[in-house]
Amino acid sequence: MLAVSTSAILIRWSDAPPVVAAFYRVLFTTALVAPVALGRHADRLSALSGRDLLAAALTGVALSVHFAAWFESLSWTSVAASVTLVQSHPLFVAVGAWLVLDERVDGRTAVGVVVAVAGMAVMSLGDLLGGGVGAAPLYGNALAAVGGLMTAGYLLAGRSLRQRLPLFPYVAVVYGVAAACLLGFAVASGAPVRGYPAHEWLLFLAMAVGPGVFGHTVLNWALEHVESSLVSVSLLGEPLGSALLALVILSEVPSAATLLGGTVVLVGVAATARARSSGD
Questions:
Q1: Closest Cα partner for 152 from 58, 29, 223?
Q2: How far is it, in rounded angstroms, from Cα 33 to Cα 37?
Q3: Is the sign of the CA dihedral 227, 238, 210, 136 positive or negative?
Q4: Distances (CA, A) of 67 to 10, 194, 279
Q5: CB within 8 Å of 135: residues ≥ 6 apart
Q6: pLDDT in tens, 114-159
Q7: What is this structure's pTM?
Q8: What is the rounded CA–CA span in Å between residue 28 and residue 34?
Q9: How far apart are CA 52 and CA 70, in angstroms?
């Protein structure tokens, strides 16, 4: 959680366009995990079927949009609001599983979703009244919510593939597709992908090593060894950790609406994650 919580701070420290920072984070993370995937699981990678490759492509596309939207959101809203909303993905997973996979939604899950949505409404109302932190907090919050939605798509699209592939081949393929998409986004937007000073490259590498490898990749590994409910709820520590780091390092004080709404969102997300895990 400490590694994941540093992500927003590292992004804020970077002066590179958000989509470029996202591209290099994912590219460097891919470079770090690929040797293990190719060295230990080359046979599994070469045996991927067309269906598996399609699942990997969809998963990687969703992950790339998640990163592009979330990195951009941090340019417009507070760290606390952005990280809270991007961690709302259990809500979207619950709704997506109901709509796409025809999974049953029980009462506890429904209550969790309603509570979290109410928290989002509180945060948005505060921003509409001018109390938000950032250049355009409502816009930034919307981007962060899109990032959360795309995380849900990433989890749903990769569910079956993850069951058939070990961790490192899975993340190497998905990260690789995401990096290619982010490069396309950067080129299409006209953002320069070369010519950055040394400290920017160090920040890109830090994003890959910290939040990339010791954060999300370790969390993917943890799913094989502990209950998914524990992993899902532990992710809710990221908004708190990031907000505290932003307060201490960036002197960023979230608005009252963000604090109140964010707390309600996290309560709803935790209830949703626990309800879904206990029902599996």
A1: 58
A2: 6
A3: positive
A4: 14, 19, 30
A5: 75, 76
A6: 888 888 787 777 666 666 677 788 899 999 999 989 988 887 777 7
A7: 0.85
A8: 10
A9: 27
